[in-house]
Each structure stands twice: as C-alpha cells, then as structure tokens.
Amino acid sequence: MQKNNYEKSKLILAVSPHIKDKETTTRIMYVVIIALIPALIGSIYFFGMRSLILVIIASVSAMLVEWLCKAVRRKPLTFDGSAILTGMLLAFNLPVQVPYWMPAVGSIFAILVVKETFGGLGYNILNPALAGRAFLMASWPSMITGRWSAPIRPIVSTIHGISATTSATPLGLLKLHPEFAQELNSWASIKHLLFGNIGGSLGETSAILLLVGAIVLFAMKYIDYRIPFSYIGTVFALTGILHVFGVTPGTPLFHILAGGLFLGAFFMATDYVTTPVTPKGYWIFGIGCGIITVIIRIWGGYPEGVCYSILLMNAATPLIDRMTIPRRFGGMIK
Same domain, yes or no, for 105 and 177? Predict the structure, then answer.
C-alpha cells in the first residue's frame, strides 16, 4: 500500500516549456478524417461505391498492420486514428479502378516500412500515405496510370470529339494533347475541376469539397496557412509566368485546380511529423513543393508531381529545421 502511494506521489520531470492543452493526437486525427468526408462523399457520387470499398480496404489494412507491429514490439494498442487516416489518404491517391488488393499492399508498406520501422507515429521521416502511393507507382505503374476512370454521371460536353469526362486526367490530357489547351482552360473545364466531374484519383477530383474540409482544419487551427498558401501560390505564380512565355499551355488557374494539388497542399504537406517546425521553414517547404511540382508537370515524363514533391521536401525537412531554427538569446550562431 505504501508503495502504491509512493508511485502516485512521484514527480514527473520534463524539459520546459510546460504547456498543457486539451488537444490530443487522437482528437486531431479524427477531425482530419471528418474533414475528408466531404471529398469521400463526392468520390462515391462521381465514381460509385467502389470508392468507399477502396477506402475501407486501405484503412482496415493499415489498422491491422499497425496493431500487429505494436503486438510484436509489445507496445500498447492504441486507437489514435493515425492508421485510418493513412489508409484513407492512400486510397484518395489511387484511381478507382485499381484492383482491391492494391490499397491493402500500399497500406502495409506505408505502416510497416515507412512508419513502424522508424519507431511509429511521430518518428517517420516521410509521409506514409504518399510513400505507399509512390511504392505502388514504382511497382505497378501500368495499373496506376492505366486505370483512370470517367465519372459514372457524365457531362454532355466534348473537346474535339473527346468527352470532357474521358478516363484521362485533365493534366494527362493537357500533356498528351496540348492542342486542346483552349478547351481545357475554358470556364466549362474549370467548372468541372471545381465540382469534380472529371477523371482522376478518387479523392482529388473536387476542389470545392477538399476546400470545405480545409476550412474546417483552418477553423480548428489544426493547420497553418503558410504551407498550403505558399505551395499553391508558387504553383500559380510559376505556371502563370511559364504560360505567358508559352512554355506551358495550361493557365495557372487550371494548374492549381487540376490533379492532387489541393489534396496534397491541405492534407499531406501539412503533416506535423514530416514538415518543418518553424514559420520560416513552412514557407521554404511550401515553395519547394511548388517548384518541384511545376518542374515535374512541365518537363517531367509524368503529368502530376504533387506526390514526389512532398516526399522530396519531407527528406529535406531536417535540413530546413537546422537552417531556420531560432538561436537562443545570447547564444552563438553555429
């Protein structure tokens, strides 16, 4: 009995500053999941129930692998929601027609290799969902790039005989058929990009629905404006300059709405673990993501660059932190 009282009375020593807050990792994870639900509902509306099945497979696979890893390492099993979010974001980055086993394999890689190998939540150096997507892209590229699907509710609109809801993504169509740039940059095309009735990954098609979720995160102060604004702003500015000089046929508005830029900027580039910790670092990170995205889209062989831009900047995060961390008052600059 005396020992139990002693255990309860022990002081907990920790490094300052001693800041307490009601927010927890679990709460943040589930709020982000809720913020993604509008985009999920949109994907179900445009692509059918297969979207929901892929998200469930990816999320359940991620949870099972995480629980197995914790059991092997004899760590307490937790329900913090991070595995669900990883699986959900991974599925959002896949075409709706991929085989059902593919999101499961991607989630296994994301959790087992990218997250748990480095020590679990808070220790991974790369965004697990994007790393899982990159692994699938490197392993089965034809199943990723060749499985784009048109929405099940087509719009009566054509671009020189090609349906506006063709299975090709808008970025892919621009890269393969630059002669259609005028139609792709038209208000009719921009409207499709805003509402999501286009081909693409199941979670990236509707810019408006992704923006709804982002507003929730901003309102809850779970994400900082610097990374998404600098990321999207850099893509807008660079593609605007390149469009004026005739390097890219796509307008800056087309480039920020097409592809996975909104999904990446608001929900993955803002990940707490794999991004810088200083305000100045946020700007550097976002601008770097924007530059790499534009380079890949314009000069690369792949029409989209969001996934690899964020992963590359994840790898640069320790260097950015080292460069931007404020020095202690009275301390020497090393």
Answer: no
Alpha helices (H) in the chain, listed in sequence order: 2-9, 25-47, 50-72, 82-92, 101-108, 128-139, 141-145, 170-176, 181-184, 187-195, 207-219, 226-244, 252-257, 261-263, 279-299, 306-324
Q: Is residue 150 part of a domain?
A: no
Chain segment 65-105, per-residue pLDDT in tens: 999 999 998 888 878 899 999 999 999 999 999 999 999 99
260 and 93 Cβ atoms separated by less than 8 Å = yes
Q: Which two tokens stand for residue 59?
A: 């999320």
When divided into structural domains, the chain yields a total of 2
How many percent of the chain have pLDDT more than 90?
65
Whether residue 230 contacts residue 286, with contact meaning beta carbons closer than 8 Å, is answered with yes
Q: What is the DSSP string of 79-131?
A: --SHHHHHHHHHHHTS-TTS-THHHHHHHHIIIIIIIGGGTSTTT-SS-HHHH
Rounded to the nearest 10 degrees, what angle do helices 25-47 and 207-219 cross at?
160
DSSP string, 29-48: HHHHHHHHHHHHHHHHHHH-
Please check whether residues 138 and 278 belong to one and the same domain: no
Domain assignment present for residue 193? The answer is yes
Domain endpoint, select from 86, 112, 145: 145
173 and 204 share a domain?
yes
- 3-state class of 162 per DSSP? strand
Does 246 share its domain with 162?
yes
- Cβ distance 24 to 129 under 8 Å? no
DSSP letter, residue 158: E
Which pTM does this prediction carry?
Answer: 0.89
Q: What is the residue range of 306's domain?
A: 158-324
Residue pair 264/93 in contact (Cβ under 8 Å)? The answer is no
CA separation for the pair 52, 157 (Å, rounded): 27
